Amino acid sequence: MEEPNSLSFEECSNKKAVYPGSFDPLTFGHIDIVQRSLRYFQNLTILVAENRKKTPFLSIEERVDLLQKYFHGNPRIHVEVCTGLLVDFMKCNDIPVCIRGLRVLSDFENEFQMAITNKQIYPNFEVLFFMSNMQHANLSSSMVKEMIHFQGNIRVFVPDIVAEYLEKRR
Ligand code: ADP
Question: Which of 30, 52, 102, 158 could lock onto 162 through a cystine, CB 3.0 to 4.6 A?
């Protein structure tokens, strides 16, 4: 197999990274990963994708709109929509690193499979995992969707701008 070009930490930092996900909806867990990534990368593209294993609650347009509103004013953050494969987006935009978050052990299996597959089709692909903060380790968009359904208080899980939108939508 062709030897991939490996990037040193110095080469990766100050460069671009992509943070792909469904963000359906954006939660404090996602925000924490974004803020921590910005300590190491100059530019971060939040890439909104459809997860075919999950039933969507918000449309892609609604998710992008909320992300853009929340991160408005930060020139280091870009929000885009993924219309194809993640690795194709990364190749086209010359982004060497993908960021993901890890919460419970069950996240790992899926992430591991995705990482191996992406590396097989794009040898320069690298993924960096951020461990969830303890206070967000149980937080997922699916849990927020459950809370909305049962009219629970979502303000401890999502920023106000998202909560207001979801409460109206409810
Ligand atoms: P996907 O459907 O691609 O998993 P999500 O929006 O659910 O999209 O998550 C995007 C990424 O953010 C994933 O890597 C996920 O593990 C991570 N993530 C989501 N919530 C949290 C959280 N509370 N703490 C840490 N990482 C998280």
Answer: 158
